[in-house]
């Protein structure tokens, strides 16, 4: 039987270990992807450390998967071997439940999560339901594409659904893995994009990414600075500090929206701020495979690029630690099978 290498976790809190496994066969409705690259995301800690209810081990983490279709399961229409494809956090939906029937596929009651409810991309091959798989534009390097499957999708999809219009002031809080992509997307969508981060030293970087302005939240009051511009139609909060998010809410314009994509443990909001200006706070779920596909196409067309540190697959454990330590400024990507 042909085998592959995979990096798995055998128990919550256990190490990432390289194992040989049989290459899995795609069942009905599924595709097999030959993995070329897989990004490491903070949410991989749910698999590594435990924390997802009902998680079964051993489990292969990884939900920023880029590769090519390698085998097509029975009943799958529209895919063929050799097509560039990827999978993100959304691991597929059934199309039948009430949420799916309303078009809210992301909230499917039987919905799966890649690398959590089934084995993910820290492996040479993975099997995914066809509903989870996104087409990749030909010519997009898998290493470039991988982080766009989660970090890119999350920020692109939140921004395009934020209600902001070209010319509006849109602020991006945080310039890390999510934020450095968000600034690029916001600028290319035609928003008057303002980066907000701690320290003056990040300003040139923000401007290189396309920001029209920069606020150093250590030296300036970000809310007051945004109000000098008339207020932000949208503030996209990629930071995971409730304090940092709380400090920018006063920068919202009338009818402005604070979009939350970073999982801060808690957040203090001002009800008076909301009601006096009809402002709102909204969370955004990353998206499904069609959103990923559009993220990839937009990124390839407009030149949005993730800044990555790459590690060979064999060094997955070291790469994971690097991401979780916060020492990687942007994204960490495993190169697989090359
Ligand atoms: Zn992720
Ligand atoms: Zn459903």
CATH architecture of the largest domain, by name, is: Alpha-Beta Complex
C-alpha-based Rg, rounded? 20 Å
Full CATH superfamily name of the largest domain: Medium-chain alcohol dehydrogenases, catalytic domain
Query: Which cofactor or ligand species appear?
Result: zinc ion
What is the name of the CATH topology of the largest domain? Quinone Oxidoreductase, Chain A, domain 1
Average pLDDT number:
96
Number of domains: 2
DSSP strand content: 25-35%
- List the uncertain runs: none
Number of helices: 11
Label the overall shape.
globular
SSE string, helix = H, strand = E? EEEHEEHEEHHEHEHEHEHEHEHEHE
Number of strands: 15
Helix fraction by DSSP (H/I, runs of at least 4): 10-25%
CATH class of the largest domain: Alpha Beta
Structural class: alpha/beta
Taking the sheet with the most strands, its summary is: 7 strands, mixed
- Our measurement of the CA-to-CA distance between the termini, rounded to an integer number of angstroms, reads 21 Å
């Amino acid at each position: 039987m042909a085998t592959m290498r995979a990096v798995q976790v055998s128990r919550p809190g256990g190490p990432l270990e390289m194992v040989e496994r049989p290459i899995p066969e795609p069942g009905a409705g599924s595709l097999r992807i030959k993995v070329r690259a897989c990004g490491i995301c903070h949410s991989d800690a749910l698999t590594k450390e435990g924390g997802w209810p009902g998680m079964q081990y051993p489990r292969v983490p990884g939900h920023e998967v880029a590769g090519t279709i390698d085998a097509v399961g029975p009943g799958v229409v529209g895919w063929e071997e050799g097509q560039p494809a990827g999978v993100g956090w959304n691991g597929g939906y059934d199309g039948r439940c009430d949420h799916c029937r309303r078009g809210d596929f992301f909230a499917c009651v039987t919905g799966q999560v890649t690398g959590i409810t089934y084995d993910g991309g820290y492996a040479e091959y993975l099997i995914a339901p066809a509903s989870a798989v996104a087409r990749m534009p030909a010519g997009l390097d898998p290493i470039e594409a991988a982080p766009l499957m989660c970090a890119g999708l999350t920020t692109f999809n939140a921004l395009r659904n934020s209600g902001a219009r070209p010319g509006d002031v849109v602020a991006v809080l945080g310039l890390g893995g999510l934020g450095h992509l968000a600034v690029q997307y916001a600028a290319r969508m035609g928003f008057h994009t303002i980066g907000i981060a701690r320290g003056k030293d990040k300003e040139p970087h923000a401007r290189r990414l396309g920001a029209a302005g920069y606020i150093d939240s250590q030296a300036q009051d970000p809310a007051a600075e945004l109000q000098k511009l008339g207020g932000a139609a949208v503030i996209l909060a990629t930071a995971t500090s409730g304090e940092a998010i709380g400090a920018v809410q006063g920068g919202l314009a009338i009818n402005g929206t604070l979009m939350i994509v970073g999982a801060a443990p808690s957040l203090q909001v001002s009800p008076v701020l909301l009601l006096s200006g009809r402002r709102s706070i909204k969370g955004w779920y990353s998206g499904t495979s069609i959103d990923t596909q559009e993220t990839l196409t937009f990124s390839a067309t407009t030149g949005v690029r993730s800044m990555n540190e790459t590690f060979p697959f064999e060094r997955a454990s070291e790469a994971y630690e690097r991401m979780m330590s916060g020492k990687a400024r942007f994204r960490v990507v495993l190169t697989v099978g090359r």
